Amino acid sequence: MLQFIAKRLGLALLVALTVSIISFSLLFLSGDPAAALAGETATDQDVEAIRKLYGFDRPMLVQYWDWLSGAMTGDLGESYYFKLPVAGLIADRLQITMLLGVCGITFALLTAVPLGVVAAIRPNSVIDRLALFLSVAGQAMPSFWFGLILIVVFSIKLGWLPPSGTTTWAHFIMPTIVLGYYAMPAIMRLTRAGMLEVLSSDYIRTARAKGAPEATVLFKHALRNAIIPVVSLAAVQMGFMLGGSIVVESIFALHGAGYLAWESIARNDLPTVQALILVFSLFYIVFTFLSDVLNAWLDPRMRAG
Q1: 163 phi/psi in degrees, rounded to 5
Q2: pLDDT for res 152
Q3: What is the share, in percent, of the chain residues with pLDDT greater than 90?
Q4: Which helix (H) or strand (E) covers residue 214, if one does?
Q5: Is residue 64 one of the residues assigned to a domain?
Q6: Number of domains in the chain
Q7: Burial category of 227 from C-beta neighbours within 10 Å (exposed 0-12, middle 13-18, buried 19 and up)
Q8: Taking the chain, what is the end-to-end CA distance rounded to the nearest angstrom?
Q9: Distances from the Cα of 276 to the Cαs of 96, 97, 264, 286, in angstroms?
Q10: What are the CA-CA distances from residue 110 to residues 31, 181, 267 (Å)?
Q11: Which CATH number do you get for residue 222?
Q12: CA–CA separation, 153 vs 301, rounded Å?
């Protein structure tokens, strides 16, 4: 197990290094960052002054090393727009995004896994068809449209929930549903497919032939094996949800890291965009690493891979 963890950790660090190079390169993909900061009416002297101020006149490798070494110590530079340290900006906003992401993936798992299990136990039943309908609807509906529908119904028509803000727990109900519904279809379908495959296997028939209670067969023998790919998918979905929360946070006016990304892109605040891409990518890498370790613990055969 330790050897497996060491291999996965080395791979995760290699991916993180690659992501850092890509994130840093984004600053220069849009052209001369000094000219972009100076604006269209700036003179050559103004552009040159900004280039020296921010160190854009130094060799690329030197700039990358300074940026990477600073990032490793928590120094992600200064925001061009907010004139504040980027690390502090992201730390303040990330709390809302993390809370929203955890609530969203919890909502998705608590609804999708039981629904997938029941759909697999009773294929072609009403519940199975309902699960299929919810899966298709969840993939077909854009998040912004679903969010607006919820605001119209529960905030404007019924007045039950606040449409925006972060003051109380009620402010997070609709954003959680919208974000979780995005991840629910894939988890439900994978749970259903895994349960169908496991329930038709020989060891399940053997367990039933020995007289094992149905609940033991379903939840001890079947679900434990069927849930393994769901763990990996949930980790991937969590990474997507953190990065994709930009739409949900914009709709419900939640000033989290996703909303900060939207603000930074709109204002050409490249250091903040760089840092957010790096932070979201690192979260994605960490979640994937943890899911690999958890899967290896659940299924020892994976440790040989």
Answers
A1: -80, -20
A2: 93
A3: 7
A4: helix 214-216
A5: no
A6: 1
A7: buried
A8: 11
A9: 14, 12, 9, 15
A10: 46, 11, 38
A11: 1.10.3720.10
A12: 49
Q: What is d(CA 264, CA 251) in angstroms, rounded to the nearest whole number? A: 17
Q: Is the pLDDT of residue 242 over 80?
A: no
Question: Which run of H or E residues covers position 200?
Answer: none
- Main-chain phi, psi angles of 42, to 5 degrees: -75, 150
The pair of three-digit structure tokens given for residue 274, joined into one six-digit string: 């760089």
d(CA 237, CA 150): 22
Query: Residue 46 falls within a domain, yes or no?
Result: no
pTM as predicted: 0.77
Write the pLDDT tens digit of every residue in 196-233. Answer: 888 888 888 888 888 778 778 887 778 877 877 787 77
How many Cβ atoms are within 10 Å of 303's Cβ, its own excluded?
Answer: 16
| Long-range CB contact pairs, 61-65, < 8 A, 24+ | 63/24, 64/21, 64/24
Q: Which domain holds residue 204?
A: 94-267
Number of H helices, E strands in the chain: 14, 0
- pLDDT tens column, 146-187: 889 999 999 999 989 888 887 888 888 999 999 888 888 888
